[in-house]
């Protein structure tokens, strides 16, 4: 590689470069360490962890901890494993992501292409709602869910996640549609196309990338949520709450290998999304923080 | 005539339709966000204990709150945690971004490695680090096995040091994200500026110190705002990593609020602590969001 195409315009000597690679690799090891520890130790029999070295590869490889974590480990009082909670999470995440994304797309469309007096204020209020500490809504939410008869149920959790998810999904679509040429929308209006027709025929077909970003963001956030699940999950707790119950349970021997397998199971869906569509994941993160 | 009326109805419907589509979201936001905020604010001025009560007691809860040792512990812990978390994440993020920006071979592999923790739940992060830092089976134990008998790392069991283990786990989770914010900032800098400075004889060090880092101001600001608001909201990580312990040594306002409201039957005080959390975040976010929205016009 010629020095001339260094895009930073900074020239570095050999010693410096070795040094740079060294630091970068040390940090890579730091970030990979917990994943390595979780994986290797989830494949060991328990005595190998308590009596052996956490950083060592298994002597005896076993999938037993995974099986236990999935289908027989004690979660709370029931020896059900994490499986039913995994299902709870899926049943909660799919509708919550779908609904909040659809609403976000429509909101973004209205806020950019059908602007009206006060739309800036509405958007500002929505945007601020993305960042509130949810402790501020826990008490009234608990009583409202109770009154609606949705406390401790999947529909209740879906409602909560949709309500607090539309801020971000609206933000994504608004920023995306803001740069879409308004002339095209005007032209369609003059041709007599209505509100939904324009959305369906003109904006939706170009919304692929932002939809991927939005779905990934909502999926990751809702799957990883703990506070709402722990507060309102009741008998239908999501995966994160179950994992915490598994790890914190004070009865019996601490089965570290099962805990690690459970942790990976809880992380697997979002990790897979990250591996498959990391580019979009990063874009979502950036759009949620820096300017869209 | 009828034809005209119909056309009129259609245009009026078209005029109202956008607002109609937006209105459920506005209603939900007004009720579930701002209505709930006002409700919690109101509760913080009442003598609510196990259940909401509507008997006004003025600022009594706030007076009690600031008289509680546990609350002070939580606030001081938040100060330590947020300060270190923001500083270390920014330092690591900036360093990694600058180093990665030196035409590094394998950048495409390293970047996702730095960033993947962001895809995990804090509960997973907490679980992993809880056992890694556990003196019985974790790093300390490993070092002893490797022959470093005197090695000690029992912070997670130590009241004085436990809060720093929270910093370690939280930095692990988010510093890669800060790196990508800075990297995006670096890639947005015009190369011509740098080349011109180099022709003027600036060294690499002064190039970064005098030109590049000042140009990254917006990225610093975004990183600060995001990290500060994450720090105030930190709850899951504490629950999974230390459970607030040993004793109450790692309680943060978020865990304080939860336990006072739901397990200690002091809903009024819990509500007051939530209001203070919200005000802290509002003080950080509002100017930032306001500036961002104005700029975008």
From TrEMBL, chain A:
InterPro entries for the chain: MetI-like (IPR000515), MetI-like_sf (IPR035906)
Highest taxon, organism lineage: Bacteria
Any one annotated GO CC term: plasma membrane
Chain segments annotated as coiled-coil in the UniProt record: none
Entry's localization field: Cell membrane
Membrane topology qualifier: Multi-pass membrane protein
Pfam families named in the record: BPD_transp_1 (PF00528)
ABC transmembrane type-1 domain segment(s): 86-277
Protein name: Carbohydrate ABC transporter permease
Source organism per UniProt: Sagittula salina
TrEMBL record, chain B:
CDD domains per record: TM_PBP2
Entry protein name: Sugar ABC transporter permease
Keyword Transport: yes
InterPro entries with a match to the protein in the record: ABC_transporter_permease (IPR051393), MetI-like (IPR000515), MetI-like_sf (IPR035906)
UniProt xrefs under PROSITE patterns: ABC_TM1
A single BP term in Gene Ontology: transmembrane transport
Source organism per UniProt: Sagittula salina
Location within or outside the cell: Cell membrane
Family as reported in the entry's similarity comment: Belongs to the binding-protein-dependent transport system permease family.
Membrane topology (UniProt): Multi-pass membrane protein
Keywords: Cell membrane, Membrane, Transmembrane, Transmembrane helix, Transport
Domain ABC transmembrane type-1: 75-290
Organism lineage: Bacteria, Pseudomonadati, Pseudomonadota, Alphaproteobacteria, Rhodobacterales
């Amino acid at each position: 590689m010629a020095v001339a195409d260094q895009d930073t315009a900074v020239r570095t000597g050999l010693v410096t470069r070795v040094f740079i690679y060294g630091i970068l690799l040390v940090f890579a090891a730091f970030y990979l360490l917990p994943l390595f520890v979780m994986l290797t130790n989830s494949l060991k029999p328990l005595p190998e962890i308590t009596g052996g070295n956490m950083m060592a590869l298994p002597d005896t490889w076993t999938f037993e901890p995974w099986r236990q974590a999935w289908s027989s480990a004690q979660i709370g009082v029931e020896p059900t494993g994490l499986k039913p909670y995994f299902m709870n999470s899926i049943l909660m995440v799919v509708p919550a992501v779908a609904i909040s994304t659809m609403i976000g797309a429509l909101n973004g469309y209205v806020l950019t292409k059908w602007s009206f007096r006060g739309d800036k204020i509405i958007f500002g209020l929505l945007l601020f709602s993305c960042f509130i500490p949810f402790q501020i809504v826990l008490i009234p939410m608990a009583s409202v869910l109770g009154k609606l008869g949705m406390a401790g149920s999947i529909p209740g959790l879906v409602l909560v996640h949709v309500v607090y998810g539309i801020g971000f999904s609206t933000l994504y679509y608004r920023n995306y549609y803001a740069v879409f040429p308004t002339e095209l929308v005007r032209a369609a209006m003059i041709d007599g196309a209505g509100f939904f027709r324009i959305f369906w025929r003109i904006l939706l077909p170009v919304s692929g990338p932002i939809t991927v970003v939005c779905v990934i963001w909502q999926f990751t956030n809702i799957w990883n949520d703990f506070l709402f699940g722990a507060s309102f999950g009741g008998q239908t707790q999501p995966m994160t709450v179950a994992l915490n119950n598994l790890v914190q349970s004070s009865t019996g021997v601490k089965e570290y290998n099962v805990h690690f397998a459970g942790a990976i199971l809880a992380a697997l869906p979002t990790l897979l999304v990250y591996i498959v569509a990391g580019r979009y994941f990063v874009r979502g993160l950036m759009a949620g923080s820096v300017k869209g | 005539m009828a034809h005209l009326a119909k056309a009129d109805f259609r245009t009026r419907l078209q005029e109202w339709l956008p607002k109609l589509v937006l209105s459920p979201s506005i209603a939900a936001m007004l009720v579930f966000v701002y209505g709930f905020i006002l409700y919690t604010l109101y509760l913080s001025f009442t003598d609510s204990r196990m259940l909401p009560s509507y008997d006004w007691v003025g600022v009594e809860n706030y007076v009690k709150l600031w008289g509680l040792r546990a609350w002070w512990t939580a606030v001081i812990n938040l100060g330590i945690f947020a300060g270190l978390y923001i500083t270390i994440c920014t330092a690591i993020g900036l360093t990694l971004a600058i180093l990665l920006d030196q035409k590094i071979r394998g950048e495409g592999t390293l970047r996702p490695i730095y960033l993947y923790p962001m895809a995990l739940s804090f509960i997973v992060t907490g679980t992993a680090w809880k056992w890694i830092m556990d003196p019985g089976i974790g790093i300390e134990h490993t070092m002893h096995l490797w022959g470093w008998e005197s090695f000690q790392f029992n912070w997670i069991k130590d009241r004085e040091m436990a809060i720093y283990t929270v910093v370690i786990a939280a930095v692990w989770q988010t510093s890669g994200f800060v790196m990508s914010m800075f990297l995006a900032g670096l890639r947005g800098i015009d190369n011509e500026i740098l080349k011109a400075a180099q022709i003027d004889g600036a060294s690499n060090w002064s190039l970064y110190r005098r030109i590049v880092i000042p140009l990254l101001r917006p990225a610093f600001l975004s990183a600060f705002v995001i990290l500060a608001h994450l720090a105030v909201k930190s709850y899951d990580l504490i629950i999974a990593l230390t459970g607030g312990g040993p004793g109450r040594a790692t309680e943060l306002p978020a865990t304080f609020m939860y336990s006072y409201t739901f397990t200690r039957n002091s809903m009024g005080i819990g509500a007051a602590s939530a209001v203070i959390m919200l005000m802290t975040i509002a003080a950080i976010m509002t100017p930032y969001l306001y500036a961002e929205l104005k700029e975008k016009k």
